[in-house]
Amino acid sequence: MCSLTLSNAILQARDRGEVPLIADIKPISPRDGDLLSQRTPAELGRVLAAVAGVCALSVVTESKHFGGSLAMLSQITDAVSLPVLRKDFVTSVQDVDDSRAAGASALLLILATTPPELVRDLYHRACDMGLEVVVEVHTRRELDQAMNLSARIIGINNRDILQLEKDAGNVSVTEALAPLVPDGILTISESSLLTPDDIARAMRAGADAVLVGTAILQSDNPSSRVSELTRLLRERDS
Predict the structure, then answer these.
(1) Is the CATH number of domain 6-237 3.20.20.70?
(2) Domain spans of the chain?
(3) CB-CB contact of 111 with 142 (8 Å)
(4) d(CA 237, CA 232)
(5) What are the pLDDT digits (tens) for 125-181?
(6) How distant, in Å, are the alpha carbons of 55, 82, 114 from that of 144?
(7) Which terminal CB of the chain, N or C, has fewer other CB atoms within 10 Å?
């Protein structure tokens, strides 16, 4: 497992004057179809990890709808030295332990799909295992629940995971929720970040980092797409 934590990777990128970008790797999008396009996940991870501005990776391991696997997570964590966030519908202590064994630095807990009593148990188990936890929210009610959990990293999903992110959600969800997150808690804006303007809006709203997947993976040259997004963002803000 990478010695650098996800939170420190975000803070270090911010200190360098970069927009902390987490590159999301998932084989299939229920909304957009095949995203790997015959690319090897480990090699894709290496390529993305080498791009300036990418401070971490996330890997979707859910198999039924997104085509991921724990094996893919292990392949990517073995291939890169950046922190890796596991994204899945985590429902058991075994899932937490498997994430640690596969080399993940952090774990996603989705409040929309996890009963409150289970969330607390999984959160504390992950912390005990040395994993950081990104608590994902999509609504104000879920954000309040995350605050009651004393979450240290909040992920704001701009789309509705209950619809498998097929809805027309956009960065306005981050704009509504990020200002409500107290200082000292890292906030990651996830999904629907397709353009430099989307990213800029999320950052202005208070996001500390952005998680971008489809906009990168749909490109024939993902590393160039990341560089283009960050370059256009710098030019836009200069």
Answers:
(1) yes
(2) 6-237
(3) yes
(4) 9
(5) 999 999 999 999 999 999 999 999 999 999 999 999 988 777 788 999 999 999 999
(6) 28, 31, 15
(7) C
